[in-house]
Every structure is written in structure tokens, then in C-alpha cells.
Amino acid sequence: MKKKQTLAQRINIMRASVMGANDGILSVAGIVIGVAGATTNNFAIFISGISGMLAGTVSMAMGEYVSVNTQKDAQRRAIMNQKDALAKNYDDEFNFVKQKYVDDGIDSQLAEQATSEMMDQDSLVTTVRERYGFDVGEYTSPYAAAISSMISFPIGSILPLLAITMLPASIRIIGTFVAVVIALAITGFSAATLGNAKRGNAVVRNIVSGMLTMIVTYVIGTLIGHL
């Protein structure tokens, strides 16, 4: 029977999806607006956007796969180190866990009792959780993270690509700009919610970075188009 994913694992996969969509929006918006600054040829703009979408999809998927595997390797190394530490200095590990609880405001006697019970049940799980902040065996799947990014990146890319090619020439730059800003506000809010961070700061940061990207690429495209 397949083991059910934990909440942390599901959140990590959702994070990969949100960030994949965010990168898709921002990357392709930068490309198509930059090209639109250099030429009014719809086909050239469309092809550049599609190329960016395909390249970004593969890049994001591979990046997530490598990143999550690297994280898993680091966690496995931490577990090996902790096994060695428990074998050589069990008392030191016991005192470390107990002191963490005391520092958190738990009475010393109660902290010792809690530590003793948890260490007797599974000393490795207890010490890894308290020292490194993750649970043994609860790894994010690199395949799930890669697939979620591979799906979400092109979905995010569709918005700026459609806006720049479907809107009338007179408003396509500003229309794409506005559409991307709205989309980045949504992904910034979603990412902050998943990470339990301040939503306002995340939204503003995401919008500002997106605006700067589009402005810079448009200016560069315009300059190149006038050469």
C-alpha cells in the first residue's frame, strides 16, 4: 500500500507548482515584451514566447529534480551523522533535546520526562527532528516536484503569451504589463500563504521584480530595434 503524503510533503509540491507558474509568467513576459520592444512582428513575438516556454519548462523541471534530490542527500547525511552521535554520545544528545525543551519554557523535570519517553520510543527520530528540523523518512519526491513544475510553468507562461499576441497592437504592451502584474500578485500571495510569510510583502516584492524585469527587457528590446 502506498504511503500517504504528509502535509509538509504536499505543501512542498504545491510550492513547486506555485513557483513554477510564477517563473513561467515572469520569464515569458520578459521575453515577449522585450521582443515586442524590438519588433511589431506578431509571429516573431509568438515564436520567441513559445521557445521561452519550452526551454523554461525543461529547465524548471530539471532544477526542481536536482534541488529536491540535493535536499534529500543532505537529510540522509544528517541522519547518518545523528546515528553516529547517538552511538558515541547518547547522553549529550539526550541533554541537547532536554535543554531545547527547557529553553522553550518547559519545566526542567517535565522536560526530562518528555525527553526520556521520546528517546526511549525512537531516539533517532527525536534527535533528528530537534537538531535539524525534519522528520526521518518524510522526503519530498523529486519526481513529483519536477512534474508539478513542468505542468505549472507552461500554464503560467500562457497568460503573457496570449496577452501579447491577442491584444490589439496599440495596447498589447500595457495590456500584457497589467495582466502580468495581476498574475504575479496572485502567485506572490499564494507562495506567501504556503510559506506562512507576510502576504503583503510577498505580493509587493513579486510585483516589483516583475515590473522591473518587463521594463528592462522592453527598454533593451526597443534599443536593439532601433539599431
UniProtKB/TrEMBL annotation:
Its main location: membrane. The chain crosses the membrane at residues 21-39, 45-67, 143-167, 173-195, 207-225. It is found in: Endomembrane system. Keywords: Membrane, Transmembrane, Transmembrane helix. It is a multi-pass membrane protein. This is VIT family protein. It comes from Secundilactobacillus hailunensis.
